[in-house]
From TrEMBL:
A GO biological-process term: polyketide metabolic process
Identification of the protein by name: Ester cyclase
SUPFAM superfamilies in UniProt: NTF2-like
A Pfam family assignment: SnoaL
Transmembrane segments: none
Length: 185
């Protein structure tokens, strides 16, 4: 038994699973964690389990904005999630976040989002996000011509039981609207 434990520690569970032929089952469980963004700067108050769960929920949600993969949002957001800075016309809760991503990706299909800075203290995470892409789709009545999109945002999350229950966010919408051509320079 000691040799098996040593092999698991040395190879890691995903490698061991691949070795014995069950990689499909194990890799599915680990796939979402492997693709999470790595913040350029990360500050955490401590190494507690709570801090790690706040960090994980926050990175899952950041990965949703980076990739558009709705599974990340479903993993990150609590069933009673509240957007405290809900834009006019957006549905509340998970549905609103999913629709916002779909709408924005229709305008900027190659949208990416990096986590420039992330701070985790207690049940809160603060993220400085940097969005980039090219406006090749449609935004309201404006058709993109490939112009570069490059703007920043700040998010504050409150996490409970490993899921984001509240979000406050501010986007640099002035820069974004100028880049989209919705307002003049």
């Amino acid at each position: 038994m000691k040799r098996v434990e040593t092999a698991i520690a040395r190879l890691g569970l995903p490698m061991l699973a691949a070795t014995i032929g069950v990689s499909g089952v194990v890799s599915a469980a680990y796939a979402s964690e492997e693709a999470l963004p790595v913040p350029h700067h990360l500050t955490v108050a401590d190494g507690s389990a709570r801090t790690k769960s706040v960090e994980l929920a926050s990175l899952r949600y950041a990965s949703f904005w980076n990739s558009g993969n709705e599974a990340y949002a479903r993993e990150a957001l609590a069933s009673d999630f509240v957007d405290r800075t809900l834009p006019a016309g957006r549905a509340p809760g998970l549905d609103g976040a999913l629709q916002a991503s779909r709408n924005f990706r229709a305008a900027v299909p190659d949208l990416t989002s990096e986590v420039d800075d992330m701070t985790v203290v207690g049940d809160r995470a603060m993220l400085h996000l940097h969005f980039k892409g090219h406006f090749t789709g449609q935004f309201k009545d404006i058709r993109g011509t490939g112009q570069t999109i490059d703007f920043q945002a700040f998010d504050l999350y409150r996490v409970k039981d490993g899921r984001i229950v509240e979000n406050w966010h501010l986007e640099d919408n002035l820069t974004l609207l100028r880049q989209l051509g919705a307002i003049s320079q």
